[in-house]
Design a protein that fits this description.
Elements lengths: L4 H7 L4 H6 L21 E5 L6 H8 L7 E4 L12 E7 L5 H12 L3 E6 L2 H10 L3 E3 L10 H12 L11 H13 L12 H9 L3 E6 L4 H13 L5 E5 L7 H4 L9 E6 L6 H13 L8 E3 L6 H22 L8 H10 L1
Parallel strand pairs: 1-2, 1-3, 3-4, 4-5, 6-7, 6-8, 8-9
Length: 341
Amino acid sequence: MLDDKNVLAQRDPQDALGVAGAQWEYFSRSFDAEFHPSGEVTNIVWAGMGGSALPAVIVQSWPRVSIPFEITRDYSIPAHVGPNTLFIASSYSGNTEETLEALTKAEAAGAQIVVIAAGGKLAATAEAKGYPLFAIPAGIQPRMATFYFVNAFLYIVKDLGVTVEDVTELGRLGEWLQTELAAWSADAPLEENIAKQLATQLAGKTIVMYSGPKLFPAANKWKIGFNENAKNTAWVNYYPEFNHNEFIGWSSHPVEKPFAVVEIRSSLEHERTQKRFEVTERLLSGKRPSPIVVTPRGDTVLQQLAWSFALGDFVSIYLGILNGVNPTPVELVEKLKAELG
C-alpha cells in the first residue's frame, strides 16, 4: 500500500509527505524583528501549548540556556514572572486561549514580552502594543513548524549571551538533513525505506516512546505525530525517570497486549542512561514487546534531534495512511474549540 502512489494521493490530499520532505528548508529562516531588553533578563518563560510548546522542549536540549528557563502550558504563569523575565508567548495560530490569557498575566507582572506566531489575536496584540513579533510562515500544521520556532528563539536571545551551544550549527543543518530525507520519501520503496517499514510494524498498536533526556524532544515529537498525523494513541517517557516508576508497570503486562515499544537510543546520552536501556530490555524480556530500537544519525545533539524529528514525521504520516486517515487536519481539536466557545 505505501508504495502505491494512488493510495498515497488519496489518503494524503494535503501532501503532508511533501511538507515533511521540505522541512530541511526551515533551519535558515531570518526574521525582521528584534528584541531589545528593557532591563536585565534573569529568567525566561515560554508560554505555549502542543506544537507551539514543543520548540521550547528542544531548547532545553539544544542550544540550552545558562539562566533559568521554564515552559508553561496553562492559563496561568509562574509566580516569579516579573520585570526581569523574558516572556515568550508562542502560538502558531495566534489564537490559543491558554497562551492569550497567560500573556495578559505576564503583562500585569511587568514582564518583557516577545511574541512568536503566524497570525491571529496574538500577532494582532503584538502589533497593537509594540511587542517584537517573530512571524512564522502560515499554511502548515504547528507540529511541522518546530524549527521555525527554534530559529526565532535564537534571534530573540542573540544579544543576551545566554546560549550554551554553538548556535551557528542550526543554519548549517539543512543541507545535511536534505540528503537524509530523500531515503524516506514516497519514491523510496518499502524494502529500502525505514520510515515505511516502521509504520508497517506499528500499525494496529498503541505506541509507547522512550528516549534519554537529550533526545526526549524527539521522542515527544514522535508521540505528537502519532496522535495528530496518524490519529493513533501513543505515550512517551524518558530514562532514567522511567526506571523509577513506569518500569514496574510493565512487569505484570503480558507481552501479547497490543503495544509497540519504540526507543530512540542515542550514543550522546549519559553512559549510565545508555546502560539502563540495555539492562531494562533484559529485565523486561517476555514482559513487554521487544523494543524497536531507533539509532539516530548525526554527530551532535542537534543533528540527532533534527534527524529523529524528520523520521518521526514520515513514520507517523505513513501510519496515518495505513490507518486510512488524512494526516493533516486535526478536526477534533477544532470541534473542541467550538464547544468551548
